Amino acid sequence: MDEENMGSLKQQLSKLFEESLKVTVPTEVEVEPLVAACAGKFGDYQCNNAMSLWSKIKGKGTQFRGPPSVGQAIMSNLPQSEMIESCSVAGPGFVNVVLSNRWIAKTIQKMLIDGIGTWSPKLRIKRAVVDFSSPNIAKEMHVGHLRSTIIGDTLARMLEFSNVDVLRRNHVGDWGTQFGMLIEFLLEKFPAWEDESEKAIGDLQEFYKASKKRFDEDPAFKERAHQAVVRLQGGEARYRRAWAQICEISRKEFDKVYQRLGVKLEEKGESFYNRYIPAVLEALSKQGLIEESEGARVIFIEGKNIPLIVVKSDGGYNYASTDMTALWYRLNEEKAEWIIYVTDVGQQQHFDMVFSAAKRAGWLPDDDKLYPKVNHVGFGLVLGEDGKRFRTRATEVVRLVDLLDEAKNRSKAALIERGKAAEWTEEELEKTAEAVGYGAVKYADLKNNRLTNYTFNFDQMLNDKGNTAVYLLYAHARICSIIRKSGKDIEELKKSGSIALDHPDERTLGLHLLQFAEIVEEACTNLLPNVLCEYLYNLSENFTKFYSNCQVVGSAEETSRLLLCEATAVVMRKCFHLLGIVPVYKI
Fold this sequence. Notes:
The chain has 24 helices and 14 strands. It is of the alpha/beta class. Strand 11 (about 340), helix 14 and strand 12 (about 375) form a beta-alpha-beta unit. Helix 4 (about 100-115) packs across helix 21, helix 6 (about 180-190) crosses helix 10 and helix 15 packs across helix 17. The longest helix has 25 residues, at about 235-260. The protein is flat. About 40% of the residues are buried.
């Protein structure tokens, strides 16, 4: 296996240090190499094992005299490698590594020929479930669902790029007491609803509000609605048909959002898991995990004051029954090794309790580092300019379709203002406005650490300066324009030309390109898309510096520098793809 295909740059260096550590301290088993990129003047990467090793081996009759001598030995025992130009030891045994310019250049060139897929991270899992978006049927998707959809899609894309089989799950709220109310209202208002259900229901939002008002004000209707839930859950045909119709109308609304965002999901809603709930609860009961408490059936969780209720006192199931069952299904039927739930931070405690119950049942290992594993990916609120939860009028939550259309229309207006309507076809204008508008909304969300709240501001997200999608998309288009204007056939240059990194700004750019795989791996492992956004912005800044100080077209180094331009564009495009943003090739 050749070195270039052995995972990220950091992983390849770690393998070399692993070999050295085995020779340096043969008595210490499974010492994990501590390798990190460093921005210092001493090197590109650093191995920081000497201090921790010294504390383990001192007093055990070792020949070493302290951390610096351990560091020296780690350096001396490094296997020969074309990756490394030179090494030095600094301070308390830090081993600094300077990478070989020739190797960096050669690796970039190999990627240009073999494709960016050869730079995908190597993860330890084969299959993952990402549970995201998950709106409630018959209710409008709101800005919180936007965050879950955007973050979940990016995590799924990063895992897919890392060659993981990803099951993208839309766990829609399609089962529950609200359906009794909706179905009863439909049957009462429109006895002939089956002939014209779409017309009868019309705007699902208004229909929901009208049925809720009736439910709250009329005790007899409320009682009939409760009966309707029982009939629906009992499988009565007429009620099942009405339920299916309401779900279908809702789905069409959700799809308008997913189409604009270019997001693919497979729906497995709460109703899907119903048939499995009794058997799962029965198995948990047999294990002695479910106990009676105040008429309900519950699982007690160590360290929590309140138990996890899995059967309500009226005998009905709830979120916990469904979530426990869905987790069981994903582990046993779908054979997932990593299950990721993307919902707002408010649901953290609920999922913590579900995960703890699954550990008690022996479904998951106690050690969170082992597989199969689960993670709750929480995120903060979207705020308006006033610092409060983002809404339009006093209480109305903003419709997502309107929000996305507004971003596109503003982006289109900016393009028209710059005279593009005269230069481009209507289709080009439309496609660019969509790419920039929707991309701006996504990037404004993803560039923040997901746990923080962020303020939704069209002017900021559509600004073409600073850390925005617009700036980055335009930067990419400019690189494409440099290559086009050179008049050279870039595919031909990939085969016949070669890269040299003689100028410091060429080397900085080259090294940054090479760190792409480990950044994707870090963003994936820690479930933090903002890490990838930061990398992309820095890549653009490094390119600008290189382009300002290194003449490309017409210089003696033209071929090498055009190949560096192409490599930057390829990596930027892959970053855009992972963030769910469509690249722009001309501006």
